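Protein modeling request. Please complete all fields; requests missing the sequence field cannot be processed.
Requester role: graduate student
Desired output: 3D structure, token encoding
Chains: 1
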Amino acid sequence: MPSDPPVLTDGVVTLRSHTIADIDGLVAMGSDPEMARWTSVPVPYERHHAERWVHEVAPAGWREGTAFGWAIEALDGGTRRFAGNIDIRTGPPPALGFAAAPWARAHGLVVRAVRLATRWAFDVGGLPVVHWSSIAGHLASWRVAHACGFAFHGDRRLSRPQRGALHDGWYASLRPGDEHAPRTTWWPVPVLDGERVRLRAHTEADVPRIVQACSDEQARYWLATLPHPYTEQAAREFVRSRRLGESLGQSVTWAVADRDDDCLLANVAVFRLDDVVNPTGGEIGYWAHPDARGRGIVGEAVDLVVAHAFTPVPAGGLGRHRLQIGAAWSNAASRQVAERAGFTLAARYRQDGVIGYGEGRTLDDGAWYERLATDGSSWASRTSEVRSRRG
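Delivered output (391 residues):
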């Protein structure tokens, strides 16, 4: 193994040794709030930390064979400058780490750096695998690993230490011979506007409303698997799992918000998007905050989602050919949403799912509805018919 970093480049980014000229960039990167939030960098991050990294830590990794580390360099407005760090600690097990300077984020530069470093680690370093992990919810880091072909292995409770506390962790790996390209479709969450509602990704401001909705007795009755008590932590974990599901090609989930004040009114999702037996099918699920029930809010949201789901992928949609909705047979309100959205009752399954809570839990039949992209008239005219029936 070399005792100094070899220079690696793809013509856009260059991986090289750290120099004294990188120190200011390291301080700016280490002092960024996102670094403090997601990594174990010292807080506050000061100049002596950067100096030690350049003069001691990075060189020692190469000299001792414990870590292959580089500075990332790229063009910024025509000038080449420090863009971040990347290292592969040899382990065992081998593990990837990277960080981008604030100016270098969201430009694909770290993706290029990871591809360069992991190829070198496999081809020259002889490593059998490279692992990636982060605090659960670090979507920016996972987006890099996802783009580089890492296979996601799961969410482990309280497995990542950071500043004296344990956090849930996400884990993935890459092996020699794996394609350096995404394994799954990362579905976006586009904003969908209706007459009264706006469908968008969840925000932190939605958390109290999610707690209220999922603590409501009616919601607990029909959604028997909801945690109880339903806490703000449960709400945040729900949102985190929805974003992860989109990255794994499984689902797309929207907060249904009031168009005037952006207050969360409901939740709607399309899931089972990764069904290998029915690869262009999907299932719609929904729930409403108590103060949004009986107002046609969920129905309007479902109309928007159906339109998006049936829109071809090249046009920005999900490219589905068939959608289904499942509801408890006795849940008249949920069944009415499906029927008003143009879904047809396809089957009634006996004792299909649990409803109720506590000692009142019981099995109810399931009502299963379906709709094909080719059913009836065009979606636009169908929506007009549905809205006119709602009055």
